[in-house]
Design goal:
Layout (H helix, E strand, L loop, with lengths): L14 H11 L4 E4 L5 E6 L4 E7 L5 E8 L10 E10 L7 E7 L8 E5 L14 E17 L2 H16 L11 E3 L17 E16 L4 E10 L2 E8 L12 E14 L42 H7 L1 H22 L3 H31 L1 E10 L2 E8 L9 E7 L13 E10 L6 E8 L7 H9 L3 H13 L9 E3 L22
Parallel strand pairs: 8-12
Antiparallel strand pairs: 1-2, 2-3, 3-4, 5-6, 5-8, 6-7, 8-13, 9-10, 10-11, 10-13, 11-12, 14-15, 14-17, 15-16, 16-19, 17-18
Helix pairs in contact: 3-4, 4-5
């Protein structure tokens, strides 16, 4: 029997499969504290497949739910809902959902109930009622796809005639939504409502993707239904023929959703402690790197092939390997051993250097500090970044670094464009402050622009404002590669030399 996990390519048919998936994904997951006891472990693949594991305060896995991160299409703006109440889950303290009504006019106040995979992170702390936008996903339990509206109508007529002998019965509209989980039909009187819906919608876009962890395919369809746009996911087995844009999808779905806006602020009690130390559940810090820890780490998984494309040294080494390795292999096939060995040596050296650089770059993108970046020149393309150079052993010291770029993928190159960077630091002679730092735009290391945007949102607006102010005042380095310490006193200048020699002493 197919499960909700199958809809995004995970194979989970029983408890043993669930435990196997936990064992594979937990070491690669990000802990998400709940501020109320327990932790979520968030695992995500590049194609949007998510697994939200639930961990008790004692460190035991007590449950978990799949979710899909969504596409960048019409559903990315979210589903507008007037949320009225939370529905804590019955299975574990970390389960839960939200109950509301459609806020868009065409929704006519239709009720909606959906489960929230990170319920205790944000949803449980909402002040209700509130109008919110939700990233809503339907996991297919039953699915029918029609190539056109006419085919959808004919299919309903045929089903009505087969069931009642009359093809003129009530039919669903092309864009319709029935919150079937809220009806008590077939349920015990005291059983909780379910996050399920029977719905129909027009297909706006579709895509066949592959779960990189399991290598199993699944389908993602963006649809317009009553009240707005949403994504639905289905296993490849449930889609017997290729969908058509403009066609109609109809079926029964389990609903999962995450809050986009508003997000409740972090509780005050979790921000600071009386002794001024960071809270135990503060999770922005990176792991130790070269004996120091970034208090606000980038935590971005590096796409090394992408980084090689944009980083000059890495690109040169990759090109050397791609040139010398095939030539050496060809010469070995021709039994030209000496020449082949001479060409294999630079290929091996390039491969070894790339492996070392990959480990270093991965560590930087994961654990180095987030800093703001602003474009200050378009020809040549250059940007500046600002960073706190304090090592913890001296006073606060702010510096601005100017760097050159070949390209800035994922962002405009217009003057004033803001974007997040990851910055590593180099020791100074005194040990009281860093001597230099090396900002790298996050988009050079990952093509996930939603992740780049999320990391950029962790940078404070006043940091960009301070950098914009320094640019406006001209207090930035004039050349690429230079660092300017903002709060250093200006260098002392010697007094001017006298224009005439001093008078001779009188005898």
């Amino acid at each position: 029997m197919a499960t909700h996990f199958d809809c995004i390519g995970f194979r989970v048919n029983d408890l043993d499969d669930f435990d196997t998936l936990v064992g594979l994904t937990a070491p690669m997951s990000k802990p998400v504290p709940t501020f109320a006891g327990g932790t979520y472990l968030h695992f995500a693949t590049p194609e949007g497949c998510e697994f939200w594991m639930q961990m008790s305060p004692e460190g035991e896995i007590i449950g978990g739910h799949p979710h899909f991160a969504g596409t960048n299409g019409p559903a990315a703006a979210g589903f507008a809902l007037d949320l009225g109440q939370t529905t804590p889950g019955a299975s574990t303290p970390l389960d839960g959902g939200l109950h509301g009504t459609m806020a868009e006019e065409e929704g006519c106040g239709c009720p909606v109930l959906f489960e929230v995979p990170d319920f205790r992170q944000y949803a449980a702390r909402l002040t209700l009622p509130v109008r919110a936008r939700v990233q809503l996903v339907g996991f297919a339990e039953e699915l029918n796809i029609s190539a056109s509206e006419e085919e959808f109508v004919q299919a309903q007529r045929a089903e009505s005639e087969a069931r009642t002998g009359d093809n003129s019965g009530m039919r669903m509209a092309v864009e319709s939504f029935i919150p079937s989980g809220l009806f008590n039909t077939g349920r015990k009187t005291d059983s909780p409502p379910g996050a399920r819906a029977v719905l129909a919608g027009r297909i706006l876009a579709w895509e066949r993707r592959k779960n990189l962890l399991s290598e199993r395919p699944f389908y993602v369809l963006t649809i317009r239904t009553l009240g707005g746009c949403m994504d639905i996911v289905a296993s490849a087995e449930m889609v017997p023929r290729e969908p058509q844009v403009g066609g109609v999808v109809f079926g029964r779905f389990w609903l999962s959703g995450r809050l986009l806006d508003p997000l409740p602020p972090v509780p005050v009690a979790a921000e600071t402690k009386p002794d001024g130390k960071e809270p135990e559940d503060w999770d922005d810090a990176g792991e130790s790197m070269h004996g120091t820890v970034a208090r606000r780490a980038a935590k971005v998984p590096l796409n090394f092939l992408r980084y090689c494309r944009y980083a000059s040294v890495h690109r040169f080494l990759a090109q050397c390997f791609l040139v010398f390795a095939p030539l050496a292999g060809l010469l070995f096939l021709l039994h030209w051993w000496v020449t082949g060995t001479l060409l294999a040596l630079p290929a091996l050296i390039a491969a070894a250097l790339l492996a070392r650089l990959r480990a270093l770059a991965s560590m930087i993108f994961k654990n180095a500090a987030l800093t703001p970046g602003v474009v200050v020149s378009t020809d040549p393309l250059e940007f500046v970044s600002i960073a706190d150079m304090d090592t913890g052993a001296g006073p606060t010291s702010i510096a601005v670094k100017r760097e050159a770029l070949r390209v800035l993928p994922g962002h405009s190159t217009a003057l004033g464009t803001r974007f997040p960077c990851v910055s590593s630091f180099r020791d100074g002679p005194s040990g009281k402050r860093w001597e230099n730092f090396y900002p790298i735009p996050l988009s050079l290391g990952t093509g996930d622009l939603r992740l780049v945007e999320a990391r950029g949102s962790r940078l404070k607006a006043d940091e960009f404002a301070e950098l914009d102010g320094l640019i406006a005042e001209g207090r930035i380095p004039a050349k690429s590669g230079e660092v300017l310490f903002i709060n250093d006193p200006p260098p002392a200048t010697p007094p001017p030399l006298p224009k005439q020699p001093p008078p001779l002493p009188k005898s």
